[in-house]
Amino acid sequence: MKSIVATAIGVVLLVLTLTDCAQNPVSGNPNFVTMSESQEVQTGRQEDVKVRQEYGVYNNKALQQYVNEVGQRLARASHRPNLQYSFAVVDSPEINAFALPGGYIYITRGILSYLSSEAELAGVLGHEIGHVTARHSVQQISAATAAGVGATLLQVFVPGLRNQAGDSVISLLGNVLLSGYGREHELEADRLGAQYLARTGYDPQAMIKVVGVLKNQELFDAEVAKSEGREPRAYHGVFASHPDSDTRLQQVVAEAGRPAPGSARLNQEEFLRRIDRMVFADSPAQGVIRNENFYHTEFGLALTFPRNWRIKNHPDRVSATNPGNDAIIELRSAGRAQGTPLEALRRALKGNIGAEVTQTTLNGLPAALTSTSMQGLPTRVAAVFLGKTAFLIGGQARNAQALQRALPEINAAIASFRPISDADRKLARPLTLRIINAPRGATFADLARKSPLGKNAVSHLRLINGMYPGGEPVAGQPLKVIE
Ligand SMILES: [Zn+2]
What we know:
alpha+beta; Membrane-bound Lytic Murein Transglycosylase D, Chain A; 4-stranded antiparallel β-sheet; globular
């Protein structure tokens, strides 16, 4: 959740415009390639403003400049060198990268933590440039939107606060790279990216490394999910097989050729120096999750979710889903605290307010609560004023029985909304990525004991160091740790 109120993203309009533009007379499919380049650039420029506003750009000028330099070098070697490309690191802990039409390319702070060299960074950027040069990104937006609308029953919580597409273009786009959106497009982007790597002096094999980084994320999540007794996230089914045994990927990368031995640009040290001291996981600007608590120092709020619910911090909200997957709690900002909490609740619910409304205080803060039905789903929702901002906290369940079961936990979460305390502020300290030289004889188990990463620290440290699942550090080698 970010401290600016997210604006509605024009995804519906955008898609209507695009699907309007032409149909392929042979397949009957929309043919986006007939969209003019200036239309494409204009679309990208419009959406870029929204991406930057909703995600936030990571506040580190030197890092932004570095990523842009690497990106521009690749772009000049691409099939569309005349586009004006822009490369930005967005302030998100998600492991992702994505492209807008027209050459607007984003890489998350999150994915940077998991890369080990400039060549791997170039692999990610080259892949995204490939989507732009092959003009996939326009198609991806519309396809992702179509798939995203109404795909999840519980995503309709408090409609009207979100744009009509049911979710923002960001989270839809955000899923594109990793969700298996069109295997053929992904493979083509890998092929093009590998070519751009070769043309700029990197070893195209870095592309396979990058796919391996993503594949290992999936394996790690499966490991954590097992220990937590939940289903693993299905967020990159695109890599059905491990890249090492993915013959088509191996083939398209091999076609790009290999640099002469010893001549490839790797720039591991430079890359690690650039990401040293980067924020790891949640940032203070978006609020941090510590165990079942959510802290947002800029808003000055704290909230405790029920134990064992899965908490996720989105750009525009923070949500928690119960272990049974039939109830959800969401917290979001709802603009300025104007009038009374009751009025804010009325505005937010647009006439859907329940018959019974309680006007009360939560930990000294003015609040109003009601039970209602949103999109046919039983919902408990509160509006609370804290400082100059109104907040909505809602619990929603798949049916009346599920709400009945979850209601004590939903009510407890609502009741826990409070001004942040000094003790909370200490816990909300952001984590930092540091580069050290591996001490002689140190194992990941040793490093994990000093790590704030919690019970999966050993695997997590291996993962960020590209040594998952079984590697150990070699004395003196540069190593990422989290402080
Ligand atoms: Zn892709």
